[in-house]
Structure formats: structure tokens, C-alpha cells
């Protein structure tokens, strides 16, 4: 019986001790608590983290900016070889008629032709996969190709020297940008035009 009473007293003492709320070691007023929070800078870190751009937002911005950079890179990759093609055609047409393509002549052609060629290549490369642009390429190729072969066969040397280098550059570029089917169809059309007009090249 004594053991039971002792255990009952211990239980009652522990339950009453649990009911009594423990007092904090240090009692701070509300103003003092806010002062400590402000001095610690915790709130500033939280607000800065909320307003800071997330990694997903940064990636999205980079993805939005990257297409323009890719378009410029793709255009430059095409502008450089087609500029050399224009210069080469200029040299070849001068050689064909026994003329010399001096640096002044080539510089004049580059100054007047490269800016137009660059803008043309940039915008057509951007939309080259569209059907409207493919149709435009096809029409340009069907106009420029027969015109160039006609001039080479029956045109005067002065007209050929002025028109053939840019016409050849544009024709090669349109064939390059066309899909395989329209490109083959254009070449077939040019061959048929040469046969129909009975053009001969010296």
C-alpha cells in the first residue's frame, strides 16, 4: 500500500509540474525583440531573396536573347562565303573579257554590294523555312537564272561585267536556301530555257 501511495504522489507531483508553465530565462519586451531582429538582418535577407531573380527566370531570359544571337551568327556564316563568291565572280568576268579587276574596282563592288547582300541574307535566313520564303526563293531563282545565262550567251561585255557577278551570287544563294525539290526544278527550268532559246556559250 505504501508503494502505491508513493507512486501516486510521484505521478501527481509530475503532473502538477507539467501543468505549471516554465518561465523564460530572459524576458524581453516586444520593442527589444524587434530591435534584435532588425539588427540581425534576417528580414532584409528574406525580402532580398523574394525580389532576387530566380535561376529559371535567368535561363528564360537567356533563351529569349539567344535566338537573335544565333540568327546573327547564321547570317555571318553565310555572308562571308557569298561575299567571297561575289568577288570571285567579279574577277572571273573581268578575266573572261581580258580585263584586270583592280583593287579599286573590287573595293567599289564590295562597298556597294556587301551591305545589301548582308541585309538580304540576314532576313531571308531568318524565314527560310517558311513556305512563303521558299516560294520567293523559287521565283527569284527562276528569274535570275535564265537572265544570267541569257546575258552570258548574248549580252554585251559591258552589261555582263556589271550584272553577271551579282546575278550569279544571288542565283547560287537562292539555290542553296531552297529545298531539294524546288532547287532541282529550278535547275531543270534553266536547262530547258537554254535549250528553248538555243543559247550557246563561247
UniProtKB/TrEMBL annotation:
Organism domain of life: Eukaryota
Chain ranges of the DUF7719 domain: 133-200
Metal-binding among keywords: no
The entry's keywords: Membrane, Transmembrane, Transmembrane helix
Transmembrane annotation, as ranges: 72-93, 105-123, 135-153, 173-196
The keyword Membrane belongs to this UniProt entry's keyword annotation: yes
Protein name: DUF7719 domain-containing protein
Source organism of this protein record: Armillaria luteobubalina
